[in-house]
């Protein structure tokens, strides 16, 4: 991981959240949100910096996958994922790529694999997380994006979390069996800054919440 620049750990303040229901952040939420929303607008001359954001959907018991697939069907979250990742570089592990089965349209799909023979049309293959982040940075600069997305799975989340500035988490409001888990979100390191609860819509098998965490340490 040598060579990673802590300056890239910058929260993407351009994302604005509408809090419908403050989940765990209670009375702190308004103040924290006001602070978060101020940032980008009040510093129009701030240098253009790139942040790494981890995007994941997590069940109540920490599960994110089973048998190399998502263990639920929450269509609203797939739409949310698309909206958050469009026009950005997206880093995923080889197993997650195989579970998706194709490049993500409208995004640069960067797949991490140690297998030098692994290749597929429409993706960039990186031999390490460092190499993936370097490729993502170049791609983001070309696109004018200020965010690099890391979208799983468990192995890749665990390795990328120390370099992330923000976590965009969908809390799937049910417990499920599974074999892939998201790393612990340590409250000494991450502060929940926004939470938006949703009842299940059509084709959602559970309620869910969009929760944002910002690095504080
Ligand atoms: N709920 C969610 O939001 C979400 C999101 C994404 C994925 N998932 C789930 O997560 C599960 C997959 O996670 P996973 O942990 O099994 O696999 P993964 O993280 O997707 O991929 C692991 C693979 O990535 C490559 N890799 C990992 N670290 C590397 C490194 N430092 N350098 C080079 N290559 C590296 C290796 O590929 P090689 O073996 O080719 O070397 C490794 O086998 C699935 O169930 C999937 O559905 C859930």
Secondary structure: elements and pairs:
Blueprint: H1 28-42, E1 51-59, E2 63-65, H2 75-85, E3 89-93, H3 94-100, E4 108-112, E5 123-126, H4 129-143, E6 147-150, H5 154-160, E7 166-172, E8 180-181, E9 190-198, E10 208-215
Parallel strand pairs: 1-6, 1-7, 3-4, 3-6, 4-5
Antiparallel strand pairs: 2-8, 7-10, 9-10
Bound molecules: NADP nicotinamide-adenine-dinucleotide phosphate (NAP).
Uncertain segments are 1-22, 26-48
- Per CATH, the architecture is 3-Layer(aba) Sandwich
> In terms of structural class, how would the helical and strand content be classed?
alpha/beta
Oligomer: single chain
How many beta-strand runs? 10
Would you give the CATH topology? Dihydrofolate Reductase, subunit A
Tell me the overall shape: globular
Helix content: 25-40%
Number of domains: 1
* Total DSSP helices: 5
The largest pleated sheet is described as: 8 strands, mixed
What would CATH call the homologous superfamily? Dihydrofolate Reductase, subunit A
How far do the termini sit from each other? 18 Å
- Write down the Rg: 17 Å
Mind telling me the CATH class?
Alpha Beta
Question: How large a portion of the residues is in β-strands, by DSSP E?
Answer: 25-35%
| Bound molecule kinds, no repeats | NADP nicotinamide-adenine-dinucleotide phosphate
* Rounded average pLDDT: 84
Q: List the helices and strands in order.
A: HEEHEHEEHEHEEEE
Widest sheet: strand ordering: 5-4-3-6-1-7-10-9
């Amino acid at each position: 991981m040598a060579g990673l620049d802590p300056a890239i750990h910058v929260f993407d303040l351009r994302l604005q959240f509408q809090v419908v229901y403050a989940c765990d952040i209670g009375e702190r939420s308004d103040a924290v949100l006001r602070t978060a929303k101020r940032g980008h607008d009040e510093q129009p001359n701030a240098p253009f910096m790139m942040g790494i954001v981890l995007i994941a959907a997590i069940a109540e018991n920490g599960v994110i996958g089973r048998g190399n697939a998502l263990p639920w069907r929450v269509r609203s979250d797939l739409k949310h994922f698309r909206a958050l990742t469009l026009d950005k570089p997206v880093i995923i592990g080889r197993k997650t790529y195989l579970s998706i089965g194709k490049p993500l349209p409208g995004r640069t799909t960067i797949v991490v694999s140690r297998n030098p023979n692994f290749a597929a049309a429409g993706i960039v293959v990186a031999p390490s997380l460092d190499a993936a982040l370097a490729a993502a940075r170049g791609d983001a600069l070309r696109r004018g994006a200020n965010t690099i997305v890391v979208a799983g799975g468990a192995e890749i989340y665990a390795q990328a979390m120390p370099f992330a500035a923000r976590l965009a988490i969908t809390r799937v409001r049910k417990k499920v069996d599974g074999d892939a888990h998201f790393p612990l979100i340590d409250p000494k390191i991450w502060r929940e800054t926004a939470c938006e609860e949703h009842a299940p819509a059509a084709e959602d098998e559970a309620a869910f919440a969009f929760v944002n965490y910002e690095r504080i340490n």
